[in-house]
Amino acid sequence: MAPAKVVIVGAGFAGIGCARELAKHPHHAEVTLVDAHDYHQFLPLLYQVATFQLAGTDVSMDLDELFRRHDNVTFRLATATSVDPTTKTVTLDDGTTLEADHLVLAAGSQANFFGTPGAEHTFPLYSLDDARRLRTRVIEAFEEGERDPSAIETGGLTFVVVGAGATGTEIAGALADLIRDVMPSRFHDEQLARARVVIVDAGTAVLGPFSPKAHEYASKVLTERGVEIKLGTKVSDITADRVVLSDGDTIDTRCVIWGGGLEAAPLAAASGLTQGRGGRIDVGTDLTVNGFPGVFVIGDLANIPADDGRPFPQLGSVALQAGQWTAKNIVADVDGKEMEPFAYHDKGIMAMIGHNAAIAEMGEHRHELHGAVGYAAWLGVHAYLMSGVHQRTDAFVDWAWDEFNKRRVLDTTDEARLHWEGDDDA
Ligand SMILES: Cc1cc2nc3c(=O)[nH]c(=O)nc-3n(C[C@H](O)[C@H](O)[C@H](O)COP(=O)(O)OP(=O)(O)OC[C@H]3O[C@@H](n4cnc5c(N)ncnc54)[C@H](O)[C@@H]3O)c2cc1C
After folding, report:
1. d(C-alpha 330, C-alpha 12), whole Å
2. Does residue 210 sit in the same domain as residue 285?
3. Separation of 2 CA from ligand 1 center, angstroms?
4. Range of the domain at 246
5. Looking at residue 418, what is its pLDDT?
6. 122 and 239 share a domain?
7. Is the CB of residue 110 less than 8 Å from the CB of residue 266?
8. In this structure, are 192 and 235 located in the same domain?
9. Which atom of ligand 1 is nearest to the CA of 40?
């Protein structure tokens, strides 16, 4: 039996989860993994890159290197421009067409600006490039404020975060910690005292998908750390130097961070498949598209039905497990066996609010942990996620240990990890 040709588009949690599992089955699958980048990016830690806690290299992994020892997986650096689900073919930006027996679409998400005017002035946080761009803007803002303190009056050190979900909360908390704990090693107190972090959200709670107790805890921690929270308010317009809010208020700022929502990556539309909620493609419980046997859509690109019929949330753990499950279904299909419905092992939801303050709602029953215990749970789940896509988790574990134990010192070189007081090389 010749191995089946499998093409996977996207090397995020879902695509890597699938490719790593199929790498164990060289007699069943010959895999081509396509991604627009030559590295996997670990999105949950982007805010640490943006706030000088981790280097970009700590949260990315070279894809050639990852599959070097697996002869049945070939990595191809290219952007998929269109997909024909009927013939199971993918066209790449270099004009080549790849044919597959099993096609796996795992191209993830992009920021959804919901038509807000001025989106081009924002700093989204959905890729490593985004995180580096934001990091540059943050340090520039402080340097400008030092050169010309009058710039602070016109919002030079005001950071507006749109969205009080996990992304918005994590970046707002990390910025507040940066201003409070790290920047004093380099900038004057009078300047830092005038820096502002403001979260704006149309909803009624910080960390909406969490429990009411978690909303309260997150709001309390952020407020204590100086973050201003404006709920029930939309950002209705963004310019280069201010945001206009739905209540008519304006905030002068030159740094608007967008954590306001997600939609499917453009490949969903380019596949011609019917798009559902969030522009994502609806799939069946076996993760294939109804009417297109052998076409799997997984991770953030898909609406994957849970037992209650509602789609699973866009989470790394859902994407990783769906990728691994898809690989098992492909192997079963090649063996002429029935494919199994996706069974998700729910590890819970969690968010880091700042130094030593995290919330974890563990498992299906959402057992709630706050503070240092929440932090330990957050660490465990992120180490699990990272080991699913990377081979090395040491930089992350070192970071987490230091985060808990030491005081940070600012290091703004691009690739150097944050230094910690007490490190030999700090
Ligand atoms: C800032 C942030 C923080 C997060 N924090 C957490 C968290 O703490 N815990 C958690 O569980 N989840 C978290 N998530 C969600 C989680 O990261 C996503 O659910 C997960 O990354 C989805 O995996 P995926 O494989 O579907 O897509 P992605 O990880 O987005 O990967 C998609 C891949 O497809 C590639 N691609 C896209 N289009 C094309 C194309 N046309 N051709 C070729 N390649 C293409 C991209 O380059 C990318 O490598 C976070 C997300 C963000 C943005």
Report:
1. 19
2. no
3. 32
4. 114-260
5. 42
6. yes
7. yes
8. yes
9. 49
